[in-house]
Amino acid sequence: MKIVVLVKHVPDTAEERKLDLATGQLDREATGGVVDEINERALEAALRIKDSNKGTEVVAMTMGPEGAAQALRKALSMGADSGVHIVDDSLSGADTGRTAATLAAALRSTGFDVVLAGNESTDGRAGVIPAMLAEHLQLPLLGSLISAEIADGAVSGVRQGEGGTLDIHTGLPAVLTVTERFPEARFPNFKGILTAKRKPVTTLSASRLGVQAPVSRTVVISTVERPPRPAGRKLIDDGTAANELAEFLVANRLV
């Protein structure tokens, strides 16, 4: 079985993320980059399947500038067998439509039985790419899973909904997305870090995938810098602080 895990190189959530006000795009130079944590959980799910079935192949795929290769190296050090990096200057600022079309073309080129991804990234938070991929590939989507079991050419799992949970299943191939209810990712060990340098990484361009058009249809109308956060209110306990605190909490609907 071949599992392709989509990994995204995103700004470190521990740092302040910024937009380039001139272009409306993410300022990737303003902060350090990391593998999106929800994608690491998807990778962990794939690696656990590989741990129990040595015939399983796990491929990490990312789309992004040169720096996104760091995400692939992290995935390879965790245990992925190989990587696919889609990098092309023409993809800079690609919207969800073009991103999904490009990833779908890359997935067709790579081949797969299962596509695993996080339910939404921590930078864009659109959460629509997996569904758009499923549409491009004409495959079933099992999204927002809190558990999954893949065996014998089929996948079953539990989907978290607003009003409860659903038990769902389908045959393979399929597109799956995981939520934060999936186990945390393992840490790369020393052997994994060393062997990651020797694992193959395929580089693909938009032209090689034949996805030069259509261009992104999403247009950023304007960008505005977030205003400075106002100073908080300090309560001095002169015998009335408890009442003032209670009034503050009630007024701001915090209790």
Topology:
Blueprint: E1 2-6, E2 9-11, E3 33-35, H1 37-52, E4 57-63, H2 69-78, E5 82-86, H3 96-110, E6 114-118, H4 129-137, E7 141-151, E8 154-160, E9 165-171, E10 174-178, H5 190-196, E11 201-204, H6 206-209, H7 241-251
Parallel strand pairs: 1-4, 1-6, 4-5, 5-11, 6-10, 7-10
Antiparallel strand pairs: 2-3, 7-8, 8-9
Can you describe this structure?
- It is built from seven helices and eleven strands.
- By secondary structure, the protein is an alpha/beta fold.
- It starts with a strand and ends with a helix.
- The chain has a nine-stranded mixed beta sheet, sandwiched between helices. A two-stranded antiparallel sheet has the order 2-3.
- Helix 2 packs across helix 5 (190-196) and helix 3 (96-110) packs across helix 4.
- The longest helix has 16 residues, at 37-52.
- 33% of the residues are buried.
- The chain has helices at 37-52, 69-78, 96-110, 129-137, 190-196, 206-209, 241-251; strands spanning 2-6, 9-11, 33-35, 57-63, 82-86, 114-118, 141-151, 154-160, 165-171, 174-178, 201-204.
- The chain is globular.
